[in-house]
Amino acid sequence: MPMNSIDLDKYRNIKDDIADKLIEDLYATIDKKEIGFLFKNLMHDLGEINYQELPQLFKEYFLNNQHFPEWIDMKKIKVAEKLFVTIGPEYGTCLICRSLPVGYVSANVVKLLCTTGYLSSNVKTGTAKRLLETSQFILNVMKKDTFCKNTIGVKHILKVRFIHAMVRYHLSKNNWDTEKYGEPINQEDMSLTILTFSVGAILGLDKLNVNLTLYEKDAMVHYWAVVGELIGMNSKLNPQDFKQGKELYDTILSRQAKSSYDGVVLTRALSDFLKGTFLTNLDSSVFKSELFSSLNLKFKKNVVFKIMPEMTDYIIRFLIDDDKYSDMLSLAKPDRLHRKLILFVSFKGITSLNSWRGYYLPDKIVQPFNKLFMNSMLNYFDAEFKMKLSIPREFSSAWGLSLKKFN
Question: pTM for the full model?
């Protein structure tokens, strides 16, 4: 039976007993400065976590919370792993350009993001840094054979669970309005976040016409439900198939949706970041494909933005595919006939070609464009951050990324 608002209300006051107990025990036994130092190191460490070097409480936390659910279906896990290798760039594009901004319509979620410093006036310490951290999380979690003991993916999930508890602890100590917003990072908000990584991205793929079978959609939702289990999700808010996942996703969004200043600011920062990566860090090799070379075509990166300076808004609006949510985020609409025509032709062309994926000529045309955003974003991270993304060889090879840069 689908959840309703009355059912969901109670989950706004439910947290994560295991992770919250860890934080209480840490502050009862370890110096605050040491805890702060450990927290900072874990936040900035995007790679392997050697928990053997951490305090005993941490070691026990990492060792004792690697319980995989009895319902895990390894066949579906393998299907999801294979899917990510095949369509990882498209999935990443839909996550960043569709799922995340849709989440910004939740006034409760963006209030927490604002309070914890997500809204930074500095691009590198705000939106870009969070996207870098999110990208590494996805890469670690989607890596082959993640759901085994002591893998980098499992450790990263448990690290995020710890970070959530730290955020709850400090917000609770600093006048967080629980009556108005619920507990910080409560079960309903965690459910929306997990479904953002599965259902939200799948809906973007649907819009791009990267059509998955129902079984493949179920497999992706199932995969992220296992992540949800490890990150402390209540089973009633952690659906394992696409149909139930979409029902819960739609229900939570509809009851949380509200235009807010913070949501608009977050969306504007994201759109500006996307535009910046396209303009200054787009990998020109995208446009040196066999097709472009054979047709002797040249492409200037900034032409599109001279014609349509709000192109990234249009892309986000197209992928969201819901004017109500897009309007809440103040995303621009194409207001001139030539812009509407260019967008129609562009989106129609890409979605039509995606329906012919697997065939030589359509792949030669559409795959460079499907990878365009992901490649430009990765190049930006490589150029601008000391923290480097580590992209497993299974992904970099399949996506045509430089091993020198990302491995």
Answer: 0.89
- What SS3 string covers 298-334? CCCCCHHHHHCCCHHHHHHHHHHCCHHHHHHCCCCCC
Q: Each residue of 255-268: pLDDT tens digit? A: 999 999 999 999 99
In SS3 terms, the chain reads as CCCCHHHHHHHCCCCCHHHHHHHHHHHHHCCHHHHHHHHHHHHHCCCCCCHHHCCHHHHHHHHHCCCCCCCCCHHHHHHHHHHHHHHHHHHHHHHHHHHHHHHCCEHHHHHHHHHCCCCCCCCCCCHHHHHHHHHHHHHHHCCCCCCCCCCHHHHHHHHHHHHHHHHHHHHHCCCCCHHHHCCCCCHHHHHHHHHHHHHHHHHHHHHHCCCCCHHHHHHHHHHHHHHHHHCCCCHHHCCCCHHHHHHHHHHHHHHHECCCHHHHHHHHHHHHHHHHHHHHHCCHHHHHCHHHHHCCCCCCCCHHHHHCCCHHHHHHHHHHCCHHHHHHCCCCCCCCHHHHHHHHHHHHHHHHHHCCCCCHHHHHHHHHHHHHHHHHHHHHHHHHCCCCCCCCHHHHHHHCCCHHHHC
Place of tokens 């197209």: 318
pLDDT in tens, 319-359: 999 999 999 999 998 887 767 777 777 777 777 777 766 66
pLDDT at 40 over 90: no
